[in-house]
Amino acid sequence: MNKLPVQELLHGEYLHIARLHKDLNDLSAVPHRHDHYEFILPLKGSGKHLIDYKPFDIQPNRLYFIQKGQVHIIENFEREGWLVFFGEELYSTFLKIHKQESEKGLLDSYSPFPYIDLDENQLQKFIHLIEQINEELKAEKQDLNIIFHYVSLFILQANKIQVNQHPKEQLDLANRKIFQELKQLLEVKYKSEHLASYYAEKLNIDGKKLNAICRKTTGSTLFELIQERLITESKIELQTSTGSIKEISYELGFNDPAFFGRFFKRHTGITPAEFRKKRMI
Description:
Layout: E1 6-7, E2 15-20, E3 32-34, E4 37-44, E5 47-51, E6 54-58, E7 62-66, E8 71-74, E9 80-86, H1 88-97, E10 115-117, H2 120-137, H3 144-165, H4 173-189, H5 196-202, H6 207-218, H7 222-240, H8 245-251, H9 257-268, H10 272-277
Helix pairs in contact: 2-3, 4-6, 8-9
Pfam families: AraC_binding, HTH_18
InterPro entries: AraC-bd (IPR003313), Homeodomain-like_sf (IPR009057), HTH-like (IPR037923), HTH_AraC (IPR018060), RmlC-like_jellyroll (IPR014710), Tscrpt_reg_AraC-type_HTH (IPR020449)
GO molecular function: DNA-binding transcription factor activity; sequence-specific DNA binding
């Protein structure tokens, strides 16, 4: 099976800021993953992009957060704005200090709102932060502590706005930790383990409690999250792999290719073969 291409824009840097434009990278218009976390702040231009195959509108003053590893596709249209990239070191340090932000707001990878809409006052605050970060990045001797705190302020402000614009009940820290462990286990085992009971047993937690945590966090049951992950990976394989649909079904843990076909159509409305032929944007 072919692997999804990875868009490498950080090149080992702690943090990087770039101008947003349509010719930034050849991979942008095809399904790809990032080797970094990314804020996208468009100032001009409107179009569409997909995050884990879910469509969203790109428009001026709408700030998006793309998580490391998420599948991203952005259509080819004229655009201007800012991109802020950072790696695992900065992100992990931020969450170590600000534990309360884990799986919250823009950092919630299951949120249906991976964006915030900025009024003029808010926009100017974020542009000022970007300018401050840029100034420090260009300094002869960079101070990573200053850069880290500027980016932390950027994330904290963005998360505060997201929670206000899209309020929902938040998990306590203990249950947030359980959900984080579930996400990690699901990412490793989703191809081979399709039943919710496996994950409850491995995490040593009652299945009903785990389901309640999933519903509170994502609005979906654990079984639905497993199916959603399988559908996302199915779409990736169908668009990027040279393997047959039969081979893809086996790769994803389906013993019966016909059942895989019915599963895919039930969730998408089209067959795997039809999906393979059509463009996603």
